[in-house]
Amino acid sequence: MDLEWFHWLTYASDSDGEDADDDQSDASADDESTIENPTSSSPGSKDEDLEMIIVRDVNEGEEVYNTYGTMGNAALLHRYGFTELDNQYDIVNIDLALVTKWCTSIFSSRHTRARVSLWRNLGYSGCTSQDTEYFEIAYDGEPQLELLILLYIISLKPDVYDKLICVAHDFVSDEEHAAICNVVKFVKATSSNQNFEVNGLEKLPDVKKSLHSESICSALLSLADMRESLYGSSTLEDDEKELQACRIVNERKVYHSLVLRVSERRILHRLRKFASSGSKAKKRKHP
Q1: pTM, whole model, 2 decimals?
Q2: Domains by residue range for the chain, with CATH
Q3: Which controlled-vocabulary keywords does the entry list (predicted)?
Q4: What is the pLDDT of residue 91?
């Protein structure tokens, strides 16, 4: 039988509130159905209606599942009260403030402000949340492209930068990646004393090679160290052992906190691998 609508009537009471919380950690995700227009009954009533739309045909009596979507553990914990080990949608945020702090530790504050300003003038920005600007590091350790572009601009030699700011307004484009493709082509032409022509952009794969240079990879390693330091003196191995020994039944908050912490630190480890794969510098020892 083809089902278009699935109606699920639940009964909530004060006595089973804790059990409901526990059940959330055992919920499984699937792509068979999605919640549509959840509604609650009138205040004071113990009944709750939940309407679900089936997104594929199912047989009568067949078990159906709800999917939580492509959410990282931080979102799952905030919205539903549970986390998943090795969640492939997890990310790590690196604040722009951390990037500028690293930059001013090597260059001057004036250098930092000027390079960030040029980056913005080219039409780039990071992600924003609650007035905080940041960059995302994906589960596999690959940094957000906007971060790589900023590090590229920061690392430009002064004479190349001075020439670039004179023509930067011509590189702004609504076309995705066009600005950085033009910038990389301009920098290559300027560095080799060749004439620059806007026609014929650098191909994105070639641009990404330029964004995986030794100086940028070195910067990524430093940023990974700075971000890692926020976790204190314990190592990733220490956190993994603590998570393994933690019992979710008795220590729910500690358990979920450790899941988030371990996942983020593993992503930082992958970020180091990403950076090391393109760096010609000597291997560094990390905590």
Answers
A1: 0.74
A2: 92-276 (3.90.1420.10)
A3: Methyltransferase, S-adenosyl-L-methionine, Transferase
A4: 97
